[in-house]
Amino acid sequence: MINPLIVEIFDDIALLLELQDDNPFRIRAYRRASLNVQALSEDLTQIAERGELQSIPGIGVDLANKIKEYIATGKVKFYEELRKKTPAFLLEMLDIPGVGPKTAKAIFEKLKPKNLKELEAMGRAGKIRKLPGMKEKTEQNILEGILLLQKHRGRTLLGKALPLARELVSQLSGFKGVNGISYAGSTRRMCETIRDIDILIASAASAPIMDAFVRRKDVWKVLAHGHTKSSVVMKEGLQVDLRVVDKDCFGAALLYFTGSKAHNIQLRSLAKKRGYKINEYGLFSVKSNKRIAGRTEEEMYKALGLSYIPPELREDQGEIDAAAHGKLPRLVEKKDIKGDFHMHSKWSDGANEIEEMVASAKKRGLKHVVLTDHSQSLKIANGLSPKRLLQQIEIVRKLNKKLSGITLLAGSEVDILSDGSLDFEDDLLKKLDFVVASVHSGFKQSKEQITRRIVKAMQNKYVRLIGHPTGRLLGERNAYEVDFDAVFKAARETNTALEINSYPQRLDLNYTYARRAHEMGVMLAIDTDSHTHDQFDNLEYGVATARRAWCAKENILNCLDLPELKKRIAKQKS
DNA sequence: GCCGTTTTCGGCCCGACTGTTTTCAGTCG
Q1: DSSP readout, A198-211?
Q2: What residues contact A8, with CB distance under 8 A and at least 6 apart?
Q3: Which end of chain A, N or C, is surrounded by fewer C-beta atoms within 10 Å?
Q4: How far does the CA of A58 sit from the C1' of B3, in Å?
Q5: Cβ of A226 < 7 Å from strand B?
Q6: Cα A54 from Cα A43, distance rounded (Å)
Q7: From CA A539, how far away is CA A171, in angstroms rounded?
Q8: pTM of the predicted model, to two decimals?
Q9: Tens digits of per-residue pLDDT, A405-456?
């Protein structure tokens, strides 16, 4: 997959051009192209082979040629030359919050620091304040920016950011004069990782709210503190931006601060074409400067002739066009999920007894769950031997008779071994109600090997589902190399579902692959892979991923009632 | 550098906060 490399090159080119004070629209073009490449689920190499690079929005003749050049030579000459011209540390300086191209260049040209440490020493020695246009404050801010950069690197999992955002919303909503409140930004779009939390408040009296916000005990550092906008870094490292607007503008502001940036740009272009202007205060007629909409997001979309676009879809992935033609899907919701096909108990590496897991699932409204402890090869997770699995099946059957309001099914998360065979014999799998097959080893195999392995597992007539199909762990391990088209095709042909694993560090399939999979006719299943009783709460992250993948409930296997599911299973693979 | 239901040339989203300025440039989202 060369896409991440192209993304990095385009982003770097944008920064390098910025340092050269190049045409800002040219710079934006590289950024836009990078965003659109990021959103692809298919490898650029394949798109290039079909000669369709220019069908990607933001990719024209020139950028298509740069991609082709990279595929052919592993290099982009234009990029190499730009880099040669620019010292590496100058580029690195742009990572410091508050330091942009102008400041970076001014400092670099005069002081020639070689690294962050040297720059910091220069700041401490009072050398930066002597430069034209800079005083003590600028110097101070750069020093603090360096500190921030060291503390606040990387992104935070949605599973951590969302609860924090909700907590902040709940606390701030109790404030006097708050007429409306919501978190916005990538948290509201349910992106898998979050850079900072955005909170929007509707109120006529912003100053006291701002004051209280920046004085919170859990605030580490105040980055900005204005009348309507403040930014802080929390002690645990996450940045939170708070914005206060009048309640008449709440919808326009919520739309704006939810983003994505690319979605906003498309909306504004559309507005412009129709003689309107959009900002965070509303939709205005350019001619009369009269406000047309702004109280609610629904009102804003309606005024633009669009149906309401749920936040999860606002990624500039065709949603505006679909909304204009009434073709948005009716997205799956958490309440549509009837069962969970993937959970563990103390028998393998779970923390709770089977009964506790079932009770927890029932409490959350699930109607059926499949117990899928690990198989024998996964020693580290105390995988079940055939003998223990047979015992467990019996216990499951007995326990199920005692249950009401929820059905417990017998299953296994069986390992797909390195040659593609399964960790249990068919005779044993046959006794189970539902089999999940997953890769837990041999991540470094070649693309062909892993693809063959997974396809072979899907051809087993008892395997209903492939668990966490790409094996990635956010911030820890990349997805293994696999030919997705081959996997999706085989999944469709063998009637095997693919999982959207809800565990916040997995979210696997991710939303772009999940979208392509169901568009190719593959059934998906949203599972929690719970290892403790409270992890059933992760379901909402999996549902969000499915929504971001444009899934309706018809695309999701666990939206079926148990009788329907059983019918489907009986028909499947027979 | 991209793009076209006004355009193949001339546009390209919009505003808040900060610091160093006496009216604005730089940075950020």
Answers
A1: EEEEE-S-HHHHHH
A2: none
A3: C
A4: 9
A5: yes
A6: 14
A7: 25
A8: 0.85
A9: 999 999 999 999 988 999 999 999 999 999 999 999 888 888 899 999 999 9
